[in-house]
């Protein structure tokens, strides 16, 4: 009888703990995805600062661009290890994607405004190469993020990814 009571209490404890564990994991997964976006945004912001300060030495711009690529690749690895998010969480991810698109557009605008300086120091081909690398990494990151949103939100996620890629492509086209 005591064994039966202990077993019942144990099962009740497991049943109560399971939903809390699932909720905690989902929050952590959303946090991982949003943290990846935030880190990428911060790195693109630092790259933009380096671009605006560019004179003739590509070192700071190149180093900042490598930081962006490392952030995207790291984010991709971290997001790939998460569980899918809920529909309401996917909306938060969409907001993060919009914010990233805005930061990328600003950085591309600033790089295009400095194109003559990049041309004068024969650095435009390097900028185009880095943008192509960024596009490839961002495409991979976007596909990974898309795989984490519910099926009924994946077309929206794809649209957000497309906006990010279009922003990068605009830079590639400007430096072609």
Give a written overview of the molecule.
With 176 residues, this protein is mainly alpha-helical. The protein has six helices and no strands. It has helices at 2-53, 59-80, 87-113, 115-120, 124-146, 154-174. It is elongated and about 50 Å long. The N and C termini lie far apart (79 Å). Mean pLDDT is 88; it is low at 3-27.
Mean pLDDT: 88
Q: Are there runs of 5+ residues with pLDDT below 50, and where?
A: 3-27
Q: List how many beta strands DSSP finds.
A: 0
Number of helices: 6
Radius of gyration: 21 Å
> Tell me about the biggest sheet?
none
Distinctive features:
176 residues, elongated, disordered N terminus
Please outline what is shown here.
With 176 residues, this protein is mostly helical.
